[in-house]
Amino acid sequence: MSVILEFTIDDEAFSFGRVLERPSEMHLELERVVPTGEMVMPFVWATGEDHEAFEEGVRANAAVAELQALDRVGDRVLYRVEWAEQPTDLLEGIAETDGVVLGAKGNDQWAFRLRFLDHEGLSAFHNFVLEHGLPIHVERTYTLSERTEHGHQFGLTQAQREALVLATERGYFDVPSGTTLDDLAAELDITKQALSERIRRGNGAVLREVLLSSASDLE
After folding, report:
1. Buried b / exposed e across 90-101, counting CB within 10 Å, b at 16+?
2. What is the 3-state secondary structure (H, E, C) of the chain?
3. pLDDT tens figures, 143-163
4. Whole-structure pTM value
């Protein structure tokens, strides 16, 4: 059963945080950590107006071999950081223990949300943190079942969940669709309009949780 870990850590307490010095108005978000051979390549979004100063500061750091701008969306730029020498701390610990970065934001400090395949992975990460003296502050740990107990997954109401489960079981979302709103509404003994609203609002709740939780949970 997968386990979620949420924690914070000061910028100066780990290599990646120290490298990414930035103007105060810049906001950073770690997108993913990719092991490449013996190296760990982090990808990070930087949001703000002073990207030139940010890039100069990062490239001037002796630990950085290359900073590459990959994509630009408005005032957001996605960068890849390539190390001159592999740092043996937080990001390596995440990669070694097969942790998945669900969300990580850096302002005055970094807030991480990680997923591990099981409690063994979480324990391995915890041991890595202790061995390397990383001063993380654990906010909470939980399993997905703990978060979604009593049938209220993803913030769904019971009615929304009932509608989505039935629609999925009957193949409503398949292409081509295996049933119609009329048939589903009749089975639930509600109007077609009421069912449509439940499905749309339920889908919205699920999508917000799945796609936006990495941002909203770390505000």
Report:
1. bbbbbbebebeb
2. CCEEEEEEEEHHHCHHHHHCCCCCCCEEEEEEEEEECCEEEEEEEEECCCHHHHHHHHHCCCCEEEEEEEEEECCEEEEEEEECCCCCCHHHHHHHCCCEEEEEEECCEEEEEEEECCHHHHHHHHHHHHHCCCCCEEEEEEEHHHHCHHHCHHHCCHHHHHHHHHHHHCCCCCCCCCCCHHHHHHHHCCCHHHHHHHHHHHHHHHHHHHHHHHHHCCC
3. 766 554 444 456 677 788 889
4. 0.65
